[in-house]
Each structure stands twice: as structure tokens, then as C-alpha cells.
Amino acid sequence: MMTALSFLLGIVPLVVATGAGAGSRVALGTAVFGGMLAATIIGTLLIPVMYFVVQGTRERLKGAPAAKAADSREAPRPSA
After folding, report:
1. Cα separation of 12 and 22, whole Å?
2. Interval 6-25 mean pLDDT
3. How far apart are the C-alpha atoms of 63 and 57, rounded to whole Å?
4. Residue 66: which pLDDT band, with cuts at 50, 70 and 90?
5. Measured between alpha carbons, how far is residue 8 from residues 3, 16, 32, 78 in Å?
6. Phi, psi angles (nearest 5°) of residue 19
7. Separation of first and last alpha carbons in the chain
8. For residue range 22-50, what is the model confidence (pLDDT) as tens digits?
């Protein structure tokens, strides 16, 4: 997360560039900034949410979660 934030802050001068050749730098900077911002949002928000949704769906389709099923089994009794 800190690497992505550092990268985004490093691209800001390209996005706000002025002067000779600024048109191409602004276009490139905007595309790179937007791509990195989208990748960061997808990686930190969308992927964990999708994992949670898929895991919940799998558990509902199978019935009880695996952890609860393992706990509900009878423990082996020690032999004398």
C-alpha cells in the first residue's frame, strides 16, 4: 500500500505538468496514475470482498463450514 501511494505521489508532477511537451506528459501521467489507482483499489478492496462472497457461497452450498464440522466430530477415547 505504501509503495502504491509513493508511486502515485511520484506521478503527480506528470499529471500537472506545464510547459513545452506538457500535452504528452499529462496524457501519459494521467493514464499511469489512473491505472495504478485502479489496480490499488482492486487489490485492496475488491479482491478481499470477492473472496468473502465466494467463501460464504461455498459454505452455504456445502452446509456447515469445515471448521465447525471438524469440531463437531467425536474425539477419540484413550485406550486403557
Report:
1. 13
2. 90
3. 10
4. low
5. 9, 13, 9, 61
6. 100, -165
7. 57
8. 888 999 999 999 999 999 999 999 999 99
